[in-house]
């Protein structure tokens, strides 16, 4: 087999006549008496096959792969924009926008169902209160940073959000304490504040780890450690 790649020397390898091992996407046609010509119609790859004989080895096919002209076209170039996925192919902006709109619809429908649940469950609520769901702001969709890794930037944001959430819980706790609502005070302390402190501590460790490992391979290694059970404090 002789393979010709762009800007490289040909590589010669012998291939047996068992052509069934070739990809099923390759179509074949007889090319005169010299042998068979295969053509991959999907990517424009052309393969020439010529029958030859070697001593004591029987028929052998010499295959020459011509340059892949299709990969030179712009739509086959690998994206370099960090905001464009390497896996993106023939995925139109219109389809992406429509899908994102549908995701937003699904979230809003789910939010309405939460409101319905709260309404029909209110008579059975432990304290007899009413849930009043409010509007929410659109979150960020990109977390890259010029100096930090996107992982560190996102984790620092998560730490800030957890600290903000803890601050709001403390404010709620203060109001409950001020109104002598001992039940609500106990509920906030046991169900939220303890777990909130633990979460802040854990995310703080993650931020410290990511600041030490830097960008690139360090972030990948950190991610693998998380998948395998966590990182060292």
From TrEMBL:
Fe cation binds at residues 106, 162, 196. GO terms for cellular component: chloroplast. It is found in: Plastid, Chloroplast. The keyword Ligase does not apply. Residues 89-214 form the Ferritin-like diiron domain. Keywords: Chloroplast, Iron, Iron storage, Metal-binding, Oxidoreductase, Plastid, Transit peptide. It holds the Pfam family Ferritin. CDD domains: Euk_Ferritin. Its main location: plastid. One of its GO terms (molecular function) is ferric iron binding. InterPro entries: Ferritin (IPR001519), Ferritin-like (IPR012347), Ferritin-like_diiron (IPR009040), Ferritin-like_SF (IPR009078), Ferritin_CS (IPR014034), Ferritin_DPS_dom (IPR008331). It is an enzyme of class 1 (oxidoreductase). Belongs to the ferritin family. This is Ferritin. It comes from Lupinus angustifolius (Narrow-leaved blue lupine). The lineage of its organism: Eukaryota, Viridiplantae, Streptophyta, Embryophyta, Tracheophyta.
């Amino acid at each position: 087999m002789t393979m010709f790649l762009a800007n490289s020397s040909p590589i010669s390898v012998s291939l047996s006549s068992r052509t069934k091992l070739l990809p099923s996407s390759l179509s074949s046609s007889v090319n005169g008496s010299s042998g068979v010509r295969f053509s991959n119609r999907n990517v424009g790859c052309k393969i020439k096959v010529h029958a030859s004989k070697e001593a004591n080895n029987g028929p052998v096919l010499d295959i020459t792969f011509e340059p892949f002209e299709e990969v030179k076209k712009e739509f086959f170039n690998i994206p370099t924009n960090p905001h464009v996925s390497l896996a993106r192919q023939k995925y139109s902006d219109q389809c992406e926008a429509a899908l994102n709109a549908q995701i937003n619809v699904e979230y809003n429908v789910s939010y309405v169902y939460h409101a319905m649940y709260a309404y029909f469950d209110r008579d059975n609520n432990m304290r007899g209160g009413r849930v009043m769901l409010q509007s929410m702001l659109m979150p960020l969709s990109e977390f890259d940073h010029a100096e930090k890794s996107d992982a560190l930037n996102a984790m620092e944001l998560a730490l800030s959000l957890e600290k903000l959430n803890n601050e709001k819980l403390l404010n709620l706790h203060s109001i409950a304490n001020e109104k002598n609502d001992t039940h609500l005070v106990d509920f906030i302390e046991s169900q939220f504040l303890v777990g909130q402190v633990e979460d802040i501590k854990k995310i703080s460790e993650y931020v410290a780890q990511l600041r030490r490992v830097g960008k690139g391979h360090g972030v990948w290694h950190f991610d693998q450690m998380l998948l395998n059970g966590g990182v060292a404090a």
